[in-house]
Design goal:
The structure holds two protein chains of two kinds. Chain A is an alpha/beta fold. Chain A has twelve helices and ten strands. Chain A folds into two domains: 3-231, 3-Layer(aba) Sandwich (Rossmann fold), CATH 3.40.50.300; 249-291, no CATH class. In chain A, the strands form two sheets. Chain A has a six-stranded mixed beta sheet, sandwiched between helices. Chain A starts with a strand and ends with a helix. Chain B has helices at 45-52, 76-82, 99-109, 114-127, 143-155, 173-190, 201-204, 224-229, 231-236, 243-253, 264-277; strands at residues 2-11, 22-30, 34-39, 60-65, 68-69, 83-86, 161-165, 193-197, 209-214, 217-222. In chain B, a hairpin with a 2-residue loop joins strand 4 and strand 5. The N and C termini of chain B lie far apart (50 Å). The model of chain B has no long low-confidence stretch (mean pLDDT 93). Classes of the chains: A alpha/beta, B alpha/beta. Chain A binds chain B through residues 41-43, 90-91, 148-150, 175-181, 183, 205, 208, 245-247, 249-251, 253-258, 261, 263, 271, 274-275, 278-279, 281-282, 285-286, 289, and chain B through 39-42, 88, 142-143, 166, 169-170, 172-175, 199, 201, 238-240, 242-244, 246-247, 250-251, 254-256, 264-265, 267-269, 271-272, 274-275, 278.
């Protein structure tokens, strides 16, 4: 499913003293198959945009099409769309609610796949839990609130992916986790990306995470998309990002200083690439001196 | 003076099951120290923190705060006054609809006279750089601003220790910076003892000392630089090096004469130096 937005606008509390225009004409195209990153300050409009993608916020201005679903049309099949576009909010573990993990994960299925039998549902739940790295037999009858922080996050994600959405949107999926937990969540996303889940869209404040994981990214600022490109091309414009008050990856910070010292590295700003390029430069210089 | 002394403390959420969230920690924190506490989710960091201000009483062992044993109920009030706590979610820590009322909550509860409360609010908001927001509505502030209000609320009680339990986890980079700057300033200028629980390795670099917890025990304790130079151990405990340190380590493994950088700036310096020498 290709996502295309043109001139998307949205105002909270319109026609009131508290009116805030959150989106001021967003243009963006996310191709099917991408692992797309969304960057931007708190208040830049990222969340408002994301909530448009499965019609949690109804379109009031501009054009938005998600696959065959035209959200600009009043006749848009919202339930159909929501079954195909899964949304994992920030700190999704706060939304766990049922008495057992199995019931919690099954909730989405009961709403989206009403013709599915009980047995079929159970096996879908098992698959979802196993996909996120939880042992079905071990956790199915446990209260989700007894799980550890990282496990709760996974259980909550299982509750969204159980319907196998084609597009998975996650708002800061790794926030608040320890370094290993972060790594595991990203591995989990890469694991499902490319299968039934064709497109992944993540919001992250962690620029290293964007540099290491995304095929392309968009930078939101004051309700607009100000950059849309590969992470390599975006982080090559570090000066502009810093002017926008955004962070840049450690690799970009380092490359920037090296550039000032006359050492230009053609890197894509992933750690591995920077390491390779620096080692190559080092080897080249050593060899140069050896001659 | 010793601010906190934990003597072989253990804590079990369900007694009798034999599984301890904190399992025999002995730790001493001096007044004025800035200690970062690292560890995986579920390693016992928050449980440990809650034992320092008597929100939890050790199942075994003793927790002593400025000479007072937390197990003695007579001390609870005094201990909570001297050890203030800031939590993770800024939205769960707001009690009033106006900033100054929110900050007044603590001083009101310890029964201070009205004028003194006013002075305390002024002092606390000034210390966190939020004086201009005295009459603002907390729900309309940014995450970093809300956390600074939460810190002000704790400060207004004039604590000697401030415990921050992943208080930067839900903030964006700018908010994180704001909170860290305020905490550092309180530590440096007012000698506030700080216990800072975090998952951000780069934040730990700003502390005087870092303690790593694993399965309810303290497994590493030293300056952040010492801790991060033991990368194999860190990895074993599910933690990671700050990214610059990771890159530096990989470059050294690739044969470059570098090592020891923890920040992007230092990394660039050492790369530059070794390229020039090559």
């Amino acid at each position: 499913m290709r996502i295309v937005a043109k001139g998307l606008t949205y105002t909270y509390n319109p026609r009131s003293p508290f009116a805030v225009q959150a989106l001021k004409g967003v243009d963006i195209t996310i191709e099917e198959g991408e692992f797309f990153g969304i960057i931007g300050h708190t208040g830049s409009g990222k969340s408002t945009f994301l909530q448009h993608l499965n019609a949690l916020v109804r379109l009031t201005g501009g054009y938005l099409k998600v696959g065959e679903y035209d959200l600009s049309s009043k006749k848009c099949d919202v339930l159909g769309l929501r079954a195909k576009v899964g949304m994992v909010f920030q700190y999704p573990e706060y939304q766990l609610f049922a008495e057992t993990v199995e019931k919690d994960v099954m909730f989405g299925l009961k709403n989206f796949c009403r013709d599915m039998g009980e047995e079929e549902m159970r096996s879908a739940v098992r698959e979802a839990l196993e996909t996120v790295g939880l042992d079905y037999e071990e956790v199915r009858d446990r209260s989700p609130f007894e799980l550890s922080g990282g496990q709760k996050r996974r259980a909550a994600i299982a509750g969204v992916i159980v319907t196998k959405p084609e597009v998975l949107i996650l708002d800061e999926p790794a926030a608040g986790l320890d370094p290993l937990g972060k790594k595991e969540i990203m591995q989990l996303l890469h694991g499902i990306h490319g299968g039934w889940c064709k497109t992944v869209v993540i919001v992250s404040h962690d620029m290293d995470e964007i540099a290491e994981n995304c095929t392309r990214a968009a930078v939101f600022s004051e309700g607009k998309v100000v950059m849309e490109d590969t992470p390599a091309a975006i982080f090559a414009r570090s000066d502009e990002l810093l002017l926008l008050g955004l962070d840049i990856p450690v690799t970009a910070k380092c490359a920037r200083i090296l550039k000032e010292r006359g050492i230009a590295l053609d890197t894509d700003f992933t750690s591995d690439d920077l390491i390779r390029k620096v080692l190559a430069a080092y080897a080249a210089r050593k060899e140069g001196r050896g001659c | 003076m010793e601010a906190v002394r934990l003597e072989n403390v253990k804590f079990a959420y369900r007694e009798g099951e034999g599984s301890y969230a904190v399992n025999g920690v002995t730790l001493s924190v001096e007044e004025g120290e800035f200690v970062a506490v690292l560890g995986r989710n579920g390693s016992g960091k928050s449980t440990l923190a809650k034992m320092i201000n008597a929100l939890l009483i050790p199942t075994e062992g003793r927790a002593i705060v400025f000479g007072l044993d937390t197990a003695d109920e007579k001390n609870t009030f005094e201990i909570r006054k001297s050890a203030g706590m800031v939590f993770q979610n800024p939205d769960n820590q707001t009690v009033a609809s106006i900033v100054e009322d929110d900050v007044a909550f603590g001083p009101e509860n310890i029964g201070l006279p009205r004028e003194e409360i006013g002075r305390r609010i002024g002092f606390a908001l000034d210390a966190v750089g939020m004086s201009a927001f005295r009459s603002a509505t907390p729900s309309r502030l940014s995450g970093g601003q809300k956390q600074r209000i939460a810190i002000a609320g704790v400060l207004a009680v004039l604590p000697k220790i401030m415990i921050l339990d992943e208080s930067t986890a839900m903030l964006d980079p700018k908010g994180r910076r704001e909170v860290m700057d305020v905490v550092k300033k309180l530590n440096k200028e007012r000698g506030m003892t700080v216990i800072f629980i975090t998952h951000f390795m780069d934040e730990a670099l700003e502390a005087d000392r870092a303690v790593v917890m694993h399965r309810g025990e303290t497994v590493m304790d030293g300056t952040p630089r010492e801790i991060f130079s033991r990368s194999d151990e860190l990895e074993m405990y599910g933690l990671a090096l700050p990214r610059a340190a990771y890159i530096s380590k990989k470059l050294a493994e690739g044969g470059m004469p570098v090592g020891g950088a923890f920040r992007a700036e230092d990394l660039a310096e050492e790369i530059c130096a070794s390229l020039q020498k090559a």
